[in-house]
Design a protein that fits this description.
single chain, alpha+beta, 7-stranded mixed β-sheet, globular, binds coenzyme A
Length: 156
């Protein structure tokens, strides 16, 4: 799979493709806390507002050129820790897209000075805990919000 996808930073021109990827995932109602519809305009706004230490990568198929998945790392109040999120097209799950994104994201996160990554996942999410566990993330105890599970891993 990894050889069939190319990973590159998300640009503003990708906003419509990302909205199309995200909207069915939001509508499914189990994967993410996002409830507001994803639109090209709000995705463009998100890209424009990214912090200088943020990482936002996309995975594209060659032909047709489609965005198969996206992964971001956003700074948290602890400068050493980045918050990671991953969204893969519902019809492209379990083909290694998330894992391919993570290889690049990890390298970029180290470059940006993060030493650990954290994933905050809704307890209703049936797939993300296994995904992050497969990448070496470990569930943390004692999150204040019972609706979520937090997983973390060091990257240095
Ligand atoms: C979670 C998600 C990003 C995983 O992406 P993906 O490209 O399907 O994952 P990969 O194919 O790279 O899987 C890597 C490993 O994760 C684990 N994994 C992924 N999906 C899994 C599933 N449905 N059940 C069990 N393990 C799973 C497996 O160990 C897998 O390796 P394997 O296929 O060799 O056994 C994807 O399912 C998704 O976008 N879900 C909807 C949005 C979401 O839940 N995002 C997380 C919130 S941050």
């Amino acid at each position: 799979m990894a050889s069939e996808v190319s990973i590159a930073p998300i640009q503003e021109r990708d906003a419509a493709a990302i909205a199309a990827l995200l909207q069915p995932i939001i509508a499914a109602g189990i994967y993410t806390a996002m409830t507001k519809p994803a639109t090209p305009a709000n995705q463009r706004g998100f890209i424009q507002s990214l912090h200088e230490r943020a990482i936002y990568l996309g995975a594209w198929s060659a032909a047709p050129r489609l965005v198969l998945g996206i992964q971001e790392v956003l700074p948290t109040p602890d400068p050493s820790v980045g918050e990671i999120g991953t969204f893969v097209r519902l019809d492209a799950h379990r083909r290694g897209v998330g894992r391919a994104l993570f290889r690049e994201t990890c390298a970029a996160a180290r470059h940006h000075g993060f030493t650990a990554l954290r994933a905050t996942i809704r307890r209703t999410n049936p797939v993300a805990p296994s995904f992050y566990a497969s990448l070496g993330f470990v569930a943390q105890d004692g999150d204040d919000d019972p609706r979520v599970v937090v997983l973390k891993r060091r990257i240095v």
